[in-house]
Please model this.
Amino acid sequence: MTQANRDVVQSAWQAFAHHDADQISAFFTEDAEWLAPPGNATAVALDVPSHMIGREAIATFIADDFPRLFARDVAITFHGFYADGDRVIVEETMSATLANGNTYVNDYCFVFELRGGLIHRVREYMDTARGQRMVFSDP
Model:
């Protein structure tokens, strides 16, 4: 089960990159949750919740909202995928050019919890102060 869950999460990341809401939502349970730190720069800049509930809300964020802030040159450098039972941990660095022209580079850790082969909960961790500076400072 551990390898299968790791494969699901890796495939989900590939779907995220294509920004296709239907493809993305297929990886999540109907009642999935995505929890990011409250008041994080992405949620504030896009006026979206930091705690998304439901596969449609998550898919809409990734497909439609995310590209409004992270406008171009989005690149993910994966540092590790670690799986144990129904949990998969992903360490990564994301870089992009923001809509305001600023360069964005931040490190992330995601904890994916799976249920029945689908993603049920995601907990997202990042340097929120660094994100705030990059998103809200003058280019």
About this structure: The chain has a mean pLDDT of 96.
